[in-house]
Amino acid sequence: MSLRRYALAALASAIFAGSAVAKDYELLNVSYDPTRELYQDYNTEFTNFWKANHPGDNVKIQQSHGGSGKQARGVIDGLRADVVTLALAGDIDEIAKLGKTLPENWQTRLPDASTPYTSTIVFLVRKGNPKGIKDWGDLTKDGVSVITPNPKTSGGARWNFLAAYAYGLKANGGDEEKAKEYVKTLFKHVPVLDTGARGSTITFVNNGQGDVLLAWENEAFLALKEDGGTDKFDIVVPSLSILAEPPVAVVDKNAEKKGNTEIAKAYLEHLYSPAGQEIAAKNFYRPRDKAVAAKYATQFPKLELVTIDKDFGGWKTAQPKFFNDGGVFDQIYQAQ
Amino acid sequence: MSNSTLSASSAANAARRGSPLSRRLLIGFGWLFFTLFLLLPLLIVVSQGLKMGVGTFFDAILEPDALSALKLTIIAVAISVPLNVVFGVSAAWCVSKYSFRGKSILVTLIDLPFSVSPVIAGLVYVLMFGAQGFFGPWLQDHDIQIVFALPGIVLATIFVTVPFVARELIPLMQEQGTQEEEAARLLGANGWQMFWHVTVPNIKWGLIYGVVLCTARAMGEFGAVSVVSGHIRGVTNTLPLHVEILYNEYNHVAAFAVATLLLILALFILLLKQWSESRINRLRASAAEE
Fold first, then answer.
1. What is the CB neighbour count within 10 angstroms for residue A251?
2. B130 touches chain A (CB under 8 A)
3. What pLDDT does residue A4 have?
4. CA distance A227 to chain B (A)
5. pTM summary value
6. What domains sit in chain A, N to C, each tagged with a CATH number?
7. A chain contacts of residue B126, beta-carbon cutoff 8 Å
């Protein structure tokens, strides 16, 4: 082998090795509305974690937030998300079905049905609870105004809707017609439907609309944490609610195209690590990890929780039945 | 001068002035309305932005995401406004210097973006260039990103600002007619010379006025851009979108600080407009004297 050829080979391998050692990543996480603070914290944690194992890499994580359904629509229409962290599995199912950018069995690829943290739906009321709201039944009393976002565009709103419906079923001994009647009356008390959960929170918290906000537990805690929040609002935990499971997934085709497959996977897997779970708990999401959950147990009230899979047959059944065109939501809302 | 003309002119003056009471009421009402609905809200925006002091104000404006939003806004304006100038001048030229079939339809179409909701303008581009859109598969194959990236934002901005330059120039050029251009041609000027030495000086101030309005709208556009932006922080957020994001993140001071920045840009543009407007009026007045 001539010296020249040897030098060339050395050069080539140096370039190759160099590119394997130091890489620039730009990862886009398309998420739903109330996770802004969670992922702000988590992105810092993950960047440090990745750099500890891959010194020399540059990692830049970009965020996009909005109503979960709207965000899914964006990804279907070509928003190049490497990972989606949305409010419910139904929205990622839509991306798999219409966008064809990830396989339909995406939810089996990570533990706990790809849901690293959970939450539930609680009530946020004005300080001292002037309207005396204790449970779902009180929301349909005269003169009570309820704030919730639009189930068509917001994931949180769909959890709200199903929680209310579950209460309607329980209060009426499982009678579906009476449950529909209950949610129909409930939505007569809703003056405005924002497109996302954060929009509704702003409507309730800043603009002073409504007596009660149906909110993600984490969103309600966050509203209390904001300056002066504890002087203005109380959280009311209803007798029954729903286990809200916001899942995460790598959008395979986008990640491949951008050369981000490896880091996108690591990004989601690290959410399940003790450090990731700790950040979730600190941002008022219920952690899956038993040790972290025990540590933060006092933070989260205990209540009866129905689940999407056991009580509603999963999102693949619930989405068309309740929220697609002509579904229960359309029936009860258009009839007004 | 006869008495009758004197009394007639003083009567006209009196009519112009109106009775003292109703005049004062009207002016008072005008000021009240102006203060309540324009001045006060704007002052609140500025005062909210400065609530935590000048330091926080500048932190909010100089923060990387805000700077990238400012940069994106400037890029969108810098691309869409010149294109609109070219389109506006050619459209106005066509409409005012030639007569042809379908002219009134063209004039109506130029106004279309005024009547179409900006949301529709945004959705149109998603339906055309989105992954599921008409050109979607082809664009994907060639790895070209239009919506949820800069090109989509520029397209949406162009759509909503199309009428401004043309609308400003059409009446101006119609009023001026074609005589001067004809004279230039008779004196041996070629098309280009005629355009630069006769037409452009004539329409200069109207053009500047149109550009100013166009710039103001391009900078402030929210609806159409919101649909095609994808809201990626630090990448596809323009200034108005950035204001909304900050507001939704309980970051009020920063939201109002960035809003103040937009307001300052708008005021600057408004001053330009006032200046060009006064120039147009002076030109018109001198033209009328001749």
1. 26
2. yes
3. 60
4. 9
5. 0.83
6. 2-115+245-295 (3.40.190.10), 119-244+303-332 (3.40.190.10)
7. 77
